[in-house]
Design goal:
- This protein is globular.
- The mean pLDDT is 96.
- The protein is an all-alpha fold and 192 residues long.
- The chain has ten helices and no strands.
Length: 192
């Protein structure tokens, strides 16, 4: 039964919220800007409202399956597997030939379910980084890097710490082009 939950979580995570919403305005975010289906590129392509809705939708994809698994008292390893499956669904969605987003918002949803206080710490780090340098990608990466430490400090189950490490590695891999641009000083600042 647990395997079925994990599979369902993948298909929920694979729902391409940004693509679906952008089609309302006749835009495909995969063909504009960075080509990413996430909130930042949707905001650039379709406007702030659509970007915000994409952020909320992608976060809900991570939150809902993980929260439900916790609500029903499933074991921590299963909850972690469900959270990871949802996240993997966003990164490699079957509906888009396995070409998905970078996963930050979906990871946010997973983390809100497993540890709201850890996400608060990570979010504060994200905001401070963003306000200082105006790079969404840099804030996302540093916030992601803080998450395992926040979970350890808050004494979360080790399964969640391992989950955050795997998610963190995948987020960094997905942001490899952003990292190259940041190092080269060519990354786009927010608002430009």
């Amino acid at each position: 039964m647990y395997i079925l939950y994990i599979v369902i979580a993948y298909f929920i995570g694979a729902i391409p919220v940004g693509v679906i919403l952008s089609k309302i305005k006749g835009i495909d975010p995969r063909k504009t800007g960075s080509g990413n289906i996430g909130a930042t590129n949707v905001m650039r392509a379709a406007g702030k409202a659509f970007g915000l809705l994409t952020l909320i939708g992608d976060a809900l994809k991570g939150l809902a399956p993980t929260f439900i698994a916790m609500k029903y008292g499933l074991p921590c390893p299963v909850i972690a597997a469900i959270g990871l499956s949802t996240f993997i669904g966003h990164l490699f969605p079957v509906y888009l030939k396995f070409k998905g987003g970078k996963g930050v918002a979906t990871a946010l949803g997973v983390y809100i379910a497993i540890s709201p206080y850890a996400i608060l710490i990570s979010f504060i780090v994200f905001i401070l980084t963003f306000l200082k340098w105006r790079y969404v990608s840099l804030g996302s990466l540093i916030g992601t890097g803080v998450m395992p430490l926040a979970l350890i400090v808050l004494k979360a189950p080790m399964e969640y710490v391992y989950l955050s490490l795997v998610i963190g590695i995948l987020i960094f891999i997905k942001h490899k082009d952003n990292i190259k641009r940041l190092v080269a000083g060519k990354e786009n600042r927010f608002g430009r």
